[in-house]
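ok so i was messing around last nite and threw this chain in just to see what happens. nothing serious, just curious
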Amino acid sequence: MMAKKKAEKVVLAYSGGLDTSVILPWLKETYGYEVVAFAAELGQGDELVGIKKKAMATGAVKCIVSDLRKELVEDYIWPMLKSGAVYENGYLLGTSIARPLIAKKQVEIAHAEGCTAVSHGATGKGNDQVRFELTFLALDPSLKIIAPWKDPNFTLTSREAAVDYAKARKIPIDQSKKKIYSRDRNLWHISHEGADLEDPWNEPQDNLFVMSRPISKSPNKADYVEIGFEEGVPVKLNGRVIGGVKMIERLNEIGGLHGVGQADLVENRLVGMKSRGVYETPGGTILSTAHRALETLTLDRETAHYKQQVALKYADLVYYGQWFSKLRGALDAFVDVTQQNVTGSVRLKLYKGQAILAGVKSPKSLYNPDLASFTMGAEYDSTDATGFIKLFGLPMQVAGIVDRQKPKAAKKAKSKSKVK
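result:
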């Protein structure tokens, strides 16, 4: 008698939400996989309460929950913050930056648990499928990638179908079939998509916000915060040394109180279509604003201008899921050099949705009050500017001479043709 073939094991990125709650048993029922559920603690609040019990009751052979908040901040968010990356002028990349870390841990768990496959619940329309799968391919291309939303046998492609499937198997979920917001939350932000937001004409309602207050309900009195940086990394809050996780948590609280960091964007997804999302990034907005302000003091003009170009590319790499690319590593090396003097303190005023610069100082400042003053002093000979402007403007001067000659030449040619 032939021995029964041993079932393959797969690591599923498991959040306990509707999609992954039904994907877990579906993998088992459809393909006979043994499913190792992996949940990453990234600062999403109470979403992971009871998740181990739920995963095991749903058919997982094992459920692993890992607290990745410190790693997320130090190895992912801080490098991104130093780069200045912002996608399409408003998205601080909260979901994007977390996906490669989750996928990396899936690969590590696959190796430790003897799994041959990795799986995720991202849809075939979104960016997350790319972020997960590019990381899998970069870190272990031998692993099989199971993406149910792109599997022709997966028929649970509506909320209603997924709810019915879960009810039939007594899987505890939100019982409502009502269309609600699709949200993703971690320490850095929370995103909102779907429902009434699918029409860009609709204003976000006050009950949408989770991490922050609506602007209309924020305090009428401002609060001030002071952020201390060392080589581009935030290390102090209001004069006290603080760890990255605690710093972001505290800034989320105070920034959220004042409605700081709310962004309403129609963005270009990597897969081609436009999508509308509302983001809350209170602490991230405060830190990004402070970091940019400190760079204005500490970066020379050419480095600052070139770094702006790098920031655009860095944002694309994060958004596109190319975190583990060679280019991202190379850009980090450039950014780290630019941050050697980005040390100092920034004071911000938080008021009615804004993080307003209230002061900046640095022991590495390139700002010289004597040079910047309107008063002419011995440190700056204004007559030097005459020769500078002549040389700097020489190409424009030559072009101007040529342009002035063109009408004369045309007029002369026209008069000759009349004579003929």
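not much to say yet. The radius of gyration is 28 Å.
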